């Protein structure tokens, strides 16, 4: 077995990019398997920051193969801009190194317009999407009218598919949202140069992954978003439109699940959320502001301020259960430094009792009250700690309590954004 999944255990932005970059050392191939450029994964190496939206976070390691799987929705314009930006720094982003699956669905202009029109038409109950066309592209996939990267290899077919899809989209754009309808030939004219540049990247990715396994290579699957943004198991309807669980590494890439042996669940030492939706441990007070400013909690994709709160073990327990966590990677522990007390939500009060797992009814999280346990904080900066024993005793106790409450062992602890600011527990 030789597949490892790294995924987010909360509401996204847990620091997956950093952990994937770090673990790429142990892998030969890095595969994105869902989501699109709603993701923003930040890597910091030697003080230099790179934000990736589509290209796997292993790209900074020369020689590692990077794959965009069929479960992703790909905006060709964003993909090519990322290719150009990374290429300009001297990195190899040629089709020999970077592959896009034939079956990856493509985001076009009408998906973005629909996403934005729908959000602005909502008076209340806005989801707070990233406006990148993610939902509408996944809708087309499920409705079996989507355009896929493989269609870029047959321009005639691409033209037919775009035109056919546009008839319906224009009815929505013009009829429902009062927008100008899109012109099919103009859209095609804008789209073809992009399609021609993406075409050489289109590859049989399931075969590529299988070959890697057969030659003894290790494959790392990079999740996007987080468990509680999952379309089924997240805080619906305030979720994204893909399956964000570790198990989707198989269907989202074409890898057989029997090769997946390791699941690294990335967890921020507190909780953040961008966009709308319930957030039981959200802090409206000065501590929330402390986490937001010390943690520099601004969305890497939209620049929106992230909402902040205490770590929620009810949600983490559910994540461990849903994803089959083999180890936790705890990030941003340094952000808690300087707080006198740290709270952990260990259960919810719900319908007169206490629950350890999130209730299943829609919007149930709106009505729960967190039950907190309080632990002592620690003073001083921990950003230079490189071993478990370097951490203050209070920080170690906090982490040990997280292990106990989640039922999963901690492997990695991150104490700063840089690749080097990391330590292993054992
Ligand atoms: P992702 O979407 O899960 O990859 O996470 P993001 O990149 O959107 O957000 C995580 C942010 O926290 C980025 O700005 C990272 O550089 C930063 N980060 C990651 N790990 C740490 C850490 O241990 N400490 C601090 N202070 N920042 C971190
Ligand atoms: P990474 O991979 C945090 C959120 C949006 C919104 C909801 C639906 O960087 O962790 P969408 O555009 O997907 O239809 O928006 O999901 N969201 C994220 N929040 N991190 C992300 O990705 C996110 N991707 C989507 O803010 O609430
Ligand atoms: Mg992010």
Strand share of the residues?
15-25%
Distance between the termini: 23 Å
Oligomeric description of these chains: single chain
Helix content: 25-40%
Silhouette: globular
Chain-averaged pLDDT? 96
Strand numbers in spatial order across the main sheet: 9-7-5-2-10-1-11-15-19-20
Topology as a string of helices (H) and strands (E):
EHEEEEEHEEHHHHEHEEEHEEHEEEEHEE
Instruction: Name the structural class.
Output: alpha/beta
Count of DSSP E strands? 20
Count of individual helical segments:
10
Q: In terms of per-residue confidence, which ranges show pLDDT below 50 for 5 or more consecutive residues? A: none
The largest sheet, given as strand count, sense and whether it forms a barrel, is: 10 strands, mixed
Using only C-alpha atoms, the radius of gyration works out to 22 Å
Give a list of the ligands. guanosine-5'-diphosphate, 6-O-phosphoryl inosine monophosphate, magnesium ion
Protein architecture, described:
The chain is of the alpha/beta class. The protein has ten helices and 20 strands. The protein has helices at 16-23, 76-88, 109-121, 134-143, 155-176, 184-198, 205-214, 286-294, 313-323, 393-406; strands spanning 3-8, 29-32, 41-45, 48-52, 65-68, 73-74, 98-101, 105-106, 202-203, 219-222, 260-268, 271-273, 307-309, 311-312, 327-331, 341-350, 353-355, 369-376, 410-414, 422-424. It has a ten-stranded mixed beta sheet, sandwiched between helices. Strands 14, 16, 17 and 18 form a four-stranded mixed beta sheet that branches. A two-stranded antiparallel ribbon has the order 3-4. β3 and β4 form a beta hairpin. α2 (76-88) runs parallel beside α6, α3 (109-121) crosses α4 and α5 packs across α6 (184-198). The model has no long low-confidence stretch (mean pLDDT 96). The protein binds guanosine-5'-diphosphate (GDP), 6-O-phosphoryl inosine monophosphate and magnesium ion. Magnesium ion (MG) is lined by residues 12-13, 39-41, 300.
């Amino acid at each position: 077995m030789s597949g490892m999944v790294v995924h987010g255990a909360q509401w996204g932005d847990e620091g997956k990019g950093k952990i994937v970059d770090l673990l790429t050392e142990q892998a030969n191939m890095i595969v994105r398997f869902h989501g699109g450029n709603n993701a923003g994964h930040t890597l910091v190496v030697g003080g230099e920051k790179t934000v990736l939206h589509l290209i796997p976070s292993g790209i900074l390691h020369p020689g590692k193969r990077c794959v965009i799987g069929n479960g992703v929705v790909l905006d060709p314009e964003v993909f090519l801009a990322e290719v150009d930006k990374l290429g300009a720094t001297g990195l190899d982003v040629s089709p020999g190194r970077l592959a896009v699956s034939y079956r990856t669905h493509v985001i076009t202009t009408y998906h973005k317009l629909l996403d934005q029109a729908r959000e602005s038409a909502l008076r209340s109950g806005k989801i707070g999407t990233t406006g990148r066309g993610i939902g509408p592209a996944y809708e087309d996939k499920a409705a079996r009218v989507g355009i896929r990267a493989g269609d870029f290899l047959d321009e005639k077919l691409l033209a037919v598919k775009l035109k056919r899809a546009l008839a319906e989209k224009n009815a929505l754009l013009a009829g429902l949202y009062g927008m100008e309808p899109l012109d099919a030939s103009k859209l095609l004219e804008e789209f073809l140069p992009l399609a021609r540049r993406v075409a050489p990247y289109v590859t049989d990715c399931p075969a590529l992954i299988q070959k890697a396994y057969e030659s003894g290579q290790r494959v790392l699957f990079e999740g996007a978003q987080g468990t509680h943004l999952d379309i089924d198991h997240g805080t619906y309807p305030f979720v994204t439109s893909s399956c964000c669980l570790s198990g989707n590494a198989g269907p989202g890439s074409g890898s057989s699940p029997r090769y997946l042996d390791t699941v690294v669940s990335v967890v921020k030492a507190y909780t953040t959320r961008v966009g709308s939706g319930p957030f039981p441990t959200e802090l409206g007070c000065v501590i929330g502001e402390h986490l937001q400013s010390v943690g520099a909690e601004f969305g890497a994709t939209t620049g929106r301020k992230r909402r902040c709160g205490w770590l929620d073990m009810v949600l983490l327990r559910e994540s461990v259960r849903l994803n089959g966590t083999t180890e936790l990677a705890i990030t941003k522990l340094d952000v808690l430094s300087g707080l006198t007390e740290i709270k952990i939500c260990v259960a919810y009060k719900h319908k007169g009792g206490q629950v350890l797992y999130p209730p299943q009814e829609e919007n149930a999280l709106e009505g729960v009250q967190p039950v907190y346990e309080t632990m002592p904080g620690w003073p001083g900066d921990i950003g230079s700690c490189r071993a478990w024993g370097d951490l203050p005793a209070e920080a170690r106790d906090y982490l040990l309590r997280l292990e106990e409450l989640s039922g999963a062992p901690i492997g990695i602890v991150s104490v700063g954004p840089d690749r080097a600011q990391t330590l292993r527990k054992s």
